[in-house]
Amino acid sequence: MYDKVSSLNNIFFTEKTDFEKLTNEMTLIFKNDSKNESLARVAVTAFISQLDPTINCINDIKTSVSEAVTNAIIHGYEKDKNGDITIYCRYVDNKFYIEVKDNGVGIFDVNLAKTPLFTSKPEMDRSGLGFTLMETFMDTVEVESVLGSGTIVRMTKTI
Amino acid sequence: MQISTTLTDKVLIVNLVGEIDHHSAAKIKEKVERDYMTTNAKDIILDFSSVTFMDSSGIGMIMGRYKNLIPKGQLKIFGANEHINNIFSISGIEKIITICKDKDEALGGRYVR
């Protein structure tokens, strides 16, 4: 009995020291329905709230998440209604990292897609500013895309 | 997103409440186009004072309405918060669309209250 209690104390102590470094991870998988754009924003906002971000910082991250998820829905999956979008986020202390991944058609020319005001869907009232806003509001934005298998947008920001 | 419109002297005032993203922008487009046609309005004013969030889909939606409106009428916006105004300036939309502080400025002193 004494041994059990002592080992429990040890576990508790180990966990406590691990948590001295402020760190957390979240993975969220949802369907490519435009209703889920707000779900993604709310979930990521809740995730970073632990770090006491400023209102401006929350808005920057919310907008960037919204842009990446919208791109996945309207460009990645186009007419396919059954695709999954995966958001993975992590922070270590005040360094925030987020990945938005789809298994869609991929981007033909990433540099062209990132060009301000370029859009492949002008008939849908698209502004062509998605990547421009992500690059404005986040510290780094990287895009990895393979035609026919999907796109990952990786972004970081110090909070 | 809640969207309601009122017509005053051929100006369609669109009151928007909530967040503007790709999902809600489609609804705004539908409602504004329909009400603009049925009320025979000339100008459109978008009331942003209760819009809490907007991404680039909002810019696309505004540009789309602007293209359908000119040269018949004018499009003005008022009441946007700091974050949304920042997105307006990054997009350069303020060069072609009048961004106003408040409703009075948007109405251009046309009405005596």
Structure description:
The complex is a heterodimer of chains A (159) and B (113). Helix content of chain A is 41%, strand content 26%. With 159 residues, chain A is α+β, with helices and mostly antiparallel strands. In chain A, strands 1-2-3-5-4 form a five-stranded antiparallel β-sheet, covered by helices on one side. Chain B has 113 residues and is α/β, with parallel strands linked by helices. Chain B has a five-stranded mixed β-sheet with strand order 1-2-3-4-5. In chain B, strand 3, helix 2 and strand 4 form a beta-alpha-beta unit. The chains are: A alpha+beta (159), B alpha/beta (113). At the A-B interface, helix 2, helix 3 and helix 5 of A face helix 1, helix 2 and helix 3 of B.
Give a topology summary.
The complex is a heterodimer of chains A (159) and B (113).
Chain A: H1 2-18, E1 23-31, H2 36-48, H3 55-76, E2 84-92, E3 95-102, H4 110-114, H5 130-137, E4 140-146, E5 150-158
Helix pairs in contact in A: 2-3, 3-5
Chain B: E1 2-8, E2 11-20, H1 22-39, E3 43-54, H2 56-69, E4 75-78, H3 82-91, E5 98-100, H4 103-107
Parallel strand pairs in B: 2-3, 3-4, 4-5
Antiparallel strand pairs in B: 1-2
Helix pairs in contact in B: 1-2
Q: Please provide the ordered H/E string of secondary-structure elements of chain A.
A: HEHHEEHHEE
How would you state the average pLDDT of chain B, rounded? 92
Quaternary structure state of the chains depicted = heterodimer
- What composes the largest sheet of chain A? 5 strands, antiparallel
- Provide the structure class of chain A: alpha+beta
Find the count of extended strands of chain A (DSSP E, 2+ residues).
5
Number of helices of chain B: 4
Summarize the structure.
By secondary structure, chain A is α+β, with helices and mostly antiparallel strands. Helix content of chain A is 41%, strand content 26%.
